[in-house]
Amino acid sequence: IIVAEEDIHKTTFMCPGHIGAFEYTVMHFGLRNTGATYQRAMNSIFHDMIGYSLE
Questions:
Q1: What residues are paired with 21 via a beta bridge?
Q2: Which pLDDT score is estimated for 47?
Q3: For residue 33, is it within any domain?
Q4: HSE value, Cβ hemisphere, 13 Å, CA-based, for 31
Q5: What PANTHER family would the database entry show (predicted)?
Q6: Whole-angstrom Cα distance, residue 11 to residue 23?
Q7: 23/31: higher pLDDT
Q8: Quick check: is 54 in a domain?
Q9: Is residue 30 a part of any domain in this protein?
Q10: Distance of CA 12 to CAs 18, 24, 42, 51, 54, Å?
């Protein structure tokens, strides 16, 4: 599935240990759960901060 030009920035990700950001121009069917995967990653990274208010 080709990603619309105005939505490509929504697919941006960075890889640990690599310099730069990457964007998908084609959405593979394997990426259909990226929202849940991203949420799980953020929960893992910030698990000790969940429930606290940060400024």
A1: 14
A2: 82
A3: yes
A4: 13
A5: REVERSE TRANSCRIPTASE DOMAIN-CONTAINING PROTEIN, TRANSPOSON TY3-I GAG-POL POLYPROTEIN
A6: 5
A7: 23
A8: no
A9: yes
A10: 14, 7, 15, 27, 25
Residue 22 lies in a domain: yes
Place of tokens 């901060």: 49
DSSP 8-55: GGGG-EE-TTS-SEE--SB--GGGTTHHHHHHHHHHHHTTTTTTS---
pTM above 0.70, yes or no: no
Cβ 24 vs Cβ 8: under 8 Å: yes
Give the range of the structural domain holding residue 40, as residue numbers without chain letter.
5-45
Contact, 39 vs 33, CB < 8 A?
Answer: no
Place of tokens 């990653």: 41
Closest CA to 27 of 39, 18, 35: 35
Give the total number of structural domains in the chain. Answer: 1
Q: What is the pLDDT of residue 32?
A: 67
